[in-house]
Amino acid sequence: MTFATLGLIEPLLRALETLGYQTPTPVQAQAIPAVLAGRDLMAAAQTGTGKTAGFALPLLQLLTMEGPKVAANSARALILCPTRELAEQVHASVAEYAQHLPLTTYAVYGGVSINPQMMKLRKGVDILVATPGRLIDLFRQNALKLNQLQTLVLDEADRMLDLGFSEELANIYRMLPKKRQTLLFSATFSDDIRLLAGQMLNDPLSIEVSPRNVAANTVKQWVVPVDKKRKPELFVHLMRKGRWKQVLVFAKTRNGVDALVDKLQGLGINADGIHGDKPQATRQRALDRFKASEVQILVATDVAARGLDIEDLPLVVNFDLPIVAEDYIHRIGRTGRAGNTGEAISLVCADEVNMLSAIEMLTRQTLTRKMEPDFEPEHRVPDTDASGQVVKKPKKPKKPKASGGGGKRNLGKWVDSGDVAPAEPSIKPVRKVPVFNTGPRKKK
Ligand code: AMP
Fold first, then answer.
1. Do 161 and 238 sit in the same domain of this protein?
2. Does residue 77 share a domain with residue 12?
């Protein structure tokens, strides 16, 4: 299968050729014809599956072929993203795909001055990428009208709800024209997401390109049990032993990020951190420097790192396990992208055993444990398995299993056999409900 056989127009094919995309990924193979046919979509796709191109390519084609010229202070398509970083990243991809098309694109998000954004919107933009809060601000200040909107995309919808945006989404929903195409993408599908889908989508085609809640099997994952207080020391030890070149590290809290960065910098290690307390410009600079390999270790919280697309990232380290098990899937989705192989190592202390158990249950696998000599924990991490059992009694440590692996492949050659699960579309009923959950806002 090629992009041409999916019915994409020549200017898009030319852009894809420049980017080195040769074969559509499974989510692209299913989403592109459905979106071109005008269908609403409910797509379960892991990060790294190529979902951005899956919605952006047909969207760009429809906007080129159909509809009136964009009016002042209007947008013809809106892509909602949970974080500023993801908005920037999605916008960068959209702009690349649109390079030979006569369409305008722009991204708006909070944490930066609203005035330049208002100025930019005066002439209208064909595709607007936005985070929910800033979109509402712009709408309320009359800088943006949505009556011309043809298509709405909800990207990483699960994450938007996790971040407490359900109220904002309900408000945005009221601002939208009734007649429109809606595409909903989510790595994981909770009941809340299905409620949201039932409210926002019209007879959607439901596609799923990987088993629900299962992490990419191109990522080799294991756990190193350790006492909490020795985690920084173990991290440095593993880094030196494994000669790690570039690592994205996840810590649970903003303080945790700062403490680890301080420790690493104190040892002369080239490290930087990103979290929600840092100004947007600082976060972006750290990320750009990491992408340019000018920073070796980037330590991040989940919110700051959400959706980051860093090509060929070989290793993700969970310095702390995430509190929400689904974040584990998002975190390790930073590696093993687009058919590459990657590694994800989690440093786990006894306090985190319930989180480990929740992750194993969600991903339906027992993570291999590898004891590091001289770092065996005094506080034993009880055994766990994919059934959610935490075995309290001491047991002999399990023999490490061989998993994943294989050589590194280049981006641009999408491998769709074995690396990603079945590409069969599965049509699932979507519950229609009068209103979706606008329950209490969760804290960020
Ligand atoms: P996404 O899941 O949209 O974040 O995409 C993950 C990565 O895969 C990005 O770096 C894309 O540039 C890349 N990618 C997307 N589609 C393809 C394709 N058909 N062939 C090769 N790489 C792709």
1. no
2. yes
- DSSP conformation letters of 269-320: --EEEE-TTS-HHHHHHHHHHHHTTS-SEEEE-HHHHTT---TT--EEEESS
Residues 91 and 185 in one domain: yes
pLDDT, tens digit, 9 for 90 and up, residues 304-332 = 666 565 666 789 999 999 988 878 887 88
List pocket residues of ligand 1, CB cut-off 6 Å: 21, 23-25, 28, 47-53, 309, 311, 337-338, 411-412, 414
The string of pLDDT tens digits covering residues 1-20 is 899 999 999 999 999 999 99
pTM of the predicted structure, to 2 decimals: 0.61
Secondary structure letter of residue 346 according to DSSP: E
Q: Which of 6, 49, 410 to mutate to test the pocket of ligand 1 (most atoms within 8 A of CB)?
A: 49
**Same-domain check for residues 73 and 123:** yes
Tell me what pLDDT residue 308 has. 62
Burial of 221 (0-12, 13-18, 19+ CB in 10 A): buried
